[in-house]
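Fold this sequence, please.
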Amino acid sequence: MLSRLLDTKPVAACVLSSNFNNPLGSAMAEIDKKLLLKLLKRHDVPLIEDDVYGDIYFSSDRPKPFIALDGGENTIYCSSFSKSLAPGYRIGWIVAGLHAQKVLEHKLAFSLCSPSLPQVALAEFLASGAYDTHLRRIRRILDENLARMTHAIEASFPGDTKVSRPSGGFVLWLELPKRFDSRALFDEALKQGICFAPGDVFSASRRFRNCLRLSAAYEWNGRIEDGIRRLGRLANTLLA
């Protein structure tokens, strides 16, 4: 599809989440990443890579980002500590290669600079080696959270519910029968203090209304498990 588009329309850049994207949690195979880079290079279209979930992997090896496969020749790499360490710090980074000067100019124009103190503190944290220890722990916790959440979904949601099986990140994508309305579920769930993301918020054309996304980023406890089970009962009631 991308190849046909590039053959017919001018494209300024391609933006992709390379590993464990939100909301599906899917990751592109390395061979497909190489093919995509080759395609973009042929059309001289730069790739803006969002690898914000890349460090949260559950296998023995970290999946390679696009920039590691083309050496930064045609890739602008973006990532952040917001998903792996602390959302409130709002600290990320860009490896822009040939586009570095233009990126700096835009940064100055839009926000001038970022707060220095949190960056210095985070730099010291990285230098200490504690971040690697933290990542090993958080990967195990999130993998366990997803397994527990999946078990609760299978026990309480309608029997024909499909659940994603991500190998990284911390979100689950649920697909229910076509007639199901996740917006109606959302309204009923809010009344009970339960929140999730309806599927149509992930579509510019408001598709996937029969789907929803759940996050397993919080510490697993009885309250969350009970919320999942109550959500499943609500889903069964709405379908009935």
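The first helix runs from residue 2 to 8. Residues 2-128 form a domain with the Aspartate Aminotransferase; domain 2 fold (CATH 3.40.640.10).
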